[in-house]
Design a protein that fits this description.
Order of helices and strands: EEHEHEE
CATH architecture: 2-Layer Sandwich
Number of strands: 5
CATH superfamily: SepF-like protein
Largest sheet: 5 strands, mixed
Number of domains: 1
Strand content: 15-25%
CATH class: Alpha Beta
């Protein structure tokens, strides 16, 4: 799975020396097989908003991953929003999604 996150050397400082933004974290996840679904669920449980790109996985596996991920969001009281073909935004509780 390809994950795009940036780690800063000090957790309270961004590269320019100012505090990091306070607010939700959005992580882009591009699964390559069904085993990656667990990582998506873990991110959602940890209150990370997930931008899910299913374009790199077999359509049958993509459907299974999406079913699992939407089930996790439902269990957490969150929501999901389709952004494009095979691209979704998934959230946990406390985030409102509108179209």
């Amino acid at each position: 799975m390809k994950k795009r996150t940036t780690k800063f050397p000090h957790p309270r400082l961004s590269p320019c020396g100012s505090p990091p933004p306070i607010g939700p974290i959005i992580e882009l996840m591009v699964p390559t097989d069904f085993e990656d679904a667990k990582h998506i669920g873990d991110k959602l449980k940890n209150k990370t908003i997930v931008a899910l790109n299913l374009t790199k996985v077999d359509p049958n596996i993509a459907e299974r991953i999406l079913d699992f991920a939407v089930g996790v969001t439902y269990a957490l009281g969150g929501g999901s929003l389709k952004l494009d073909t095979n691209i979704f935004l998934l959230t946990g509780q406390g985030v409102t999604l509108t179209q």
